Amino acid sequence: MAAWRERLAGVRGVLLDISGVLYDSGEGGGKPIAGSVEAVARLKRSGLKVRFCTNESQKSRRRLVGELRRLGFDIHEGEVTAPPPAACQVLKERGLRPHLLVHDEVRSEFDQIDTSNPNCVVIADAGESFSYQNMNKAFQVLMGLDKPVLISLGKGRYYKMTSGLMLDVGGYMKALEYACGVEAEVVGKPSPEFFKSALQEMGLEACQAVMIGDDIVGDVGGAQRCGMRALQVRTGKFRPSDEHHPEVKADGYVDNLAEAVDLLLQHVD
Predict the structure, then answer these.
(1) Helices marked H in 82-168 — which ranges?
(2) E strand or H helix at 249, and its extent?
(3) Element (H, E) at 260
(4) Residue 167: CB atoms within 10 Å
(5) How many of the other CB atoms lie within 10 Å of CB of 207?
(6) Buried b / exposed e along 31-68 (16+ C-beta atoms within 10 A)
(7) For residue 119, how many other CB atoms are within 10 A of its CB?
(8) What would the pLDDT profile of 153-164 be if each residue is shown by its tens digit?
(9) For the chain, how long is the longest CA-to-CA vector?
(10) Rounded Cα distance, 122 and 103, in Å
(11) 98-127, pLDDT tens digit by residue?
């Protein structure tokens, strides 16, 4: 009891991963994880600040939020920190014109970005668009640049859908890094800048927030490197070996979001 009180002392806000924590995506809009709809509602009623922090890059924020609302979640587009809008800001600030290797569902997020005569490549979870032809085109664009810039929306290895585990953008990012001799710039978790932007939206310091996610490296490790505390749920992509990860140890492990919220509401000051 005292241990949890100490671990959660001073928490004023909660960052929630979406896929694998709130729901498992899939056909028909996916399926909520047991207890998660009410857990989000309880958090919002508690007075704690809540923000959703996702690496989702197969869907626009509008579509993602629409699906979650249909499942019963209290969530709004302005509460979601996601990679595509953050990437657009980076592109505009640096005058970059991307060749896009992204899912068709998120192309609309880049409508205001000049994509003529590309001077960088943006890669995301492109799903079925990760063909040899499309990967090779991205490779050719990078190899044709004097100073190649590769921007990756996240670097996850895999994620969980209702149909099982799915390969994520990280493997394809690594292939382009290896082939082109470049190091990708990651926009999304575990990038410190991504977490900091979410904290800024909440008006909180890192020490006042806790991250709840299913990814031991992207969610837990990324948040902890920013000075946040982080809990890992045993849902989504969680594997039992995560609790013995050689480099990252969560501040606590919980069975699901509902248990995490129970602990927060019991022990937060």
Answers:
(1) 83-94, 132-143
(2) none
(3) helix 257-267
(4) 14
(5) 13
(6) ebbebbbebbebbeeeebbbbbbbbbbbbbbeebbebb
(7) 17
(8) 999 999 999 999
(9) 59
(10) 11
(11) 999 999 999 999 999 999 999 999 999 999
